[in-house]
Design a protein that fits this description.
The chain has 453 residues and is mainly α. It has helices at residues 5-12, 20-40, 51-54, 62-65, 68-89, 99-130, 136-144, 149-172, 174-193, 203-219, 233-252, 275-290, 292-299, 302-312, 315-335, 346-370, 386-406, 426-450, and strands spanning 41-44, 47-50, 416-419, 422-425. It contains 18 helices and four strands.
């Protein structure tokens, strides 16, 4: 069997009812994040900076390239379909919750490659420090490689909150989204107008869950045609309204231009998220919905669809390891004493395509090494222990977010970082994540698995 055979089989077995565009959006959004990180890295022998800080004129590009909201929007769509499918499969008359099984199903391909990444890098960091290594780019790498885990933490929260928020959606529709968006706006008023401390961290939930809620609306076909609206009218209103409001908030409010975090700025649109970022998310969701029809025609072609299927099978692994690959390329250049031009100079731009190709090749090698952990585990029934699963998801969320902030540098020295207002160390974060993952796995197997013949 050739390497392409499993992909071809999966592609040809795709049900006619599957929304292929959602799969494309998932891959494209993660690919854009990877490329953005590679492009923004301004590495010198003294450390790692941000190209957007070196060349502020490039910051408007973040209004096109900051497409994490699209991934969370797609997540809402997929979570709604998955949870409803499990509800339909629950034995008639059963009062057991499907919540634990839902968590396990949705988190299998997320947590397994994440835990492998965490354990491999944790062991490498410990070995480096025991051998007396570190300093320079090595310490920077140990701090930076875990930063993308913030995304994993947010996604965990979205999965965990799907059942109650889906019920709100089924009862209130657009009103549920409006409630979350209104809460995000209220948080920013309290933050900027009233100076209430720590309130801004609530928008990690309100902003991203509002975008996630748009995925529920799409799952029910409520982002397209409506009373008196053509199939494109509502997405156009969403895109236009979001873009105009985001522009106004940046022009007249306390929000920065960049839709990604910038070093040294007092306010970031990303950490924690702001109302401006939510409006940016609305504009992006509307824009991608406007492209649905031409994209669907493209994905009807077998070769295009096979490419999406293949990319989806390794997307999370590539996301986890892409910074490792990028920093590995820079590390090799420094070790080989190759020229590393000053960022944004003509020589730096001329060298950029070669660095990108090298990072892509190294990422592909890492994907080939670790891709097996992204394959879904065997199904285990549709019922489980809900409270145990909720505890596991909470521990995973806290551990992953904590690790994204503290990194692996200073492992032996007990380096800490603040997760909101709580100091956290890397060993504690790893242990918390591992315990949470094991609880989710155990709870998700539940009685449904044990009763199978």
């Amino acid at each position: 069997m050739t390497m392409g055979s499993p992909v071809r089989v999966l592609a040809e077995a795709t049900p006619a009812t599957r929304d292929r565009y959602v799969d494309l959006l998932r891959v494209a959004s993660l690919a854009a994040v990877v490329l953005g990180h590679w492009m923004m890295a301004a590495v010198t022998p003294d450390g790692v900076g941000n190209l957007l800080a070196v060349v502020p004129a490039l910051q408007p590009l973040t209004w096109l390239l900051q497409i994490m909201p699209v991934f969370f929007f797609v997540g809402g769509f997929a979570h709604a379909l998955s949870y409803r499918s499990l509800l339909r499969k629950r034995p008639e008359g059963s009062t057991d919750s499907v919540y634990a099984a839902f968590l396990r199903v949705r988190l299998q391909r997320l947590l397994r490659p994440t835990m492998v990444f965490v354990l491999v890098w944790g062991a490498a960091a410990l070995l480096i420090q025991l051998l007396g290594g570190g300093g320079g780019l090595t310490d920077v790498t140990l701090r930076l490689v875990t930063q993308p885990l913030w995304f994993i933490g947010i996604y965990l929260a979205m999965v965990a909150f799907t059942p109650p928020l889906l019920r709100l959606h089924e009862r209130y529709g657009w009103g549920a989204f409006a409630g979350l968006a209104g809460a995000a706006a209220a948080v920013d008023v309290l933050r900027f107008a009233a100076g209430v401390p720590y309130v801004e961290f609530l928008n990690f939930a309100f902003v991203w869950l509002a975008v996630h809620q748009l995925g529920f609306l799409r799952a029910d076909g409520r982002l397209g045609a409506g009373p008196g609206l053509s199939v494109l009218r509502r997405p156009a209103l969403l895109a236009g309204g979001g873009l105009i409001t985001a522009l106004a908030l940046v022009a007249f409010g306390p929000y920065p231009l960049s839709m990604v975090g910038m070093p040294g700025e007092k306010v970031s649109n990303m950490a924690p998220p702001t109302l401006a970022l939510l409006c940016h998310g609305l504009w992006l969701v509307g824009a991608v919905e406007l492209l649905r029809a031409p994209a669907a025609r493209l994905l009807a072609r077998p070769r295009a669809w096979r490419t999406v299927v293949a990319a989806n099978g390794v997307a999370m692994t590539a996301f986890l390891w892409h910074l490792t690959a990028m920093l590995g390329v820079y590390g090799a250049m420094l070790a080989l004493d190759l020229p590393l031009p000053e960022p944004a100079t003509a020589a730096w731009w001329a060298q950029t395509p070669l660095r990108l190709v090298a990072a892509a090749v190294l990422t592909a090698a890492l994907v080939a090494t670790f891709r097996t952990f992204e394959r879904p585990a065997p199904a285990a029934g549709v019922q489980g222990h809900g409270p145990l699963a909720a505890l596991g998801a909470t521990l995973c969320l806290l551990g992953v977010l904590g690790l994204s902030m503290v990194g692996f540098a200073g492992l032996l020295e007990g380096r800490t970082a603040l997760l909101i207002a709580v100091p956290v160390t890397a060993p504690a974060a790893v242990a918390t994540t591992l315990c949470g993952w094991l609880l989710v796995e155990r709870a998700g197997r539940g009685r449904g698995a044990r009763q199978r013949p």
